[in-house]
Amino acid sequence: MDLWNRLREYNRTLLEMHLGSLCFGLVCQVIGAFFVKDQGMYARSLWFGILFATISTIHLYRSLDRALDYEDRAAGMMTRSYFVRYAMVIIILLLVSITGIMNPLIVFLGYMSMKVSALIQPVTHKLCNKLFRENE
Question: What is the pTM of this model?
Fold first, then answer.
């Protein structure tokens, strides 16, 4: 199976969210090229944060998919998954801060790509429809 068909079979909303995170990362990378002195640290921190946001998006999708199967316990399951995601954010930001291997603010900026990609999802949805030649 080629890449194009695999992308068609992938969950469309998740694909659009990942595409939004990628676009946000590219914009941040280009803007950072003009203002940041340590390009290596900036790029590592930004793309680590975006990777972390991508993993969190997948976790959110799987948690929601699982919770929808359990109507009576769905709220509790989603609350637990929310706390797991944000506990991981706190742990990773603490580790990054303590070790100094990356800039915690830039890692957090990369993580916020998840929020930005949710806001620009209508745009990425239209883009994916054009790429896959689909109409609504």
Answer: 0.84
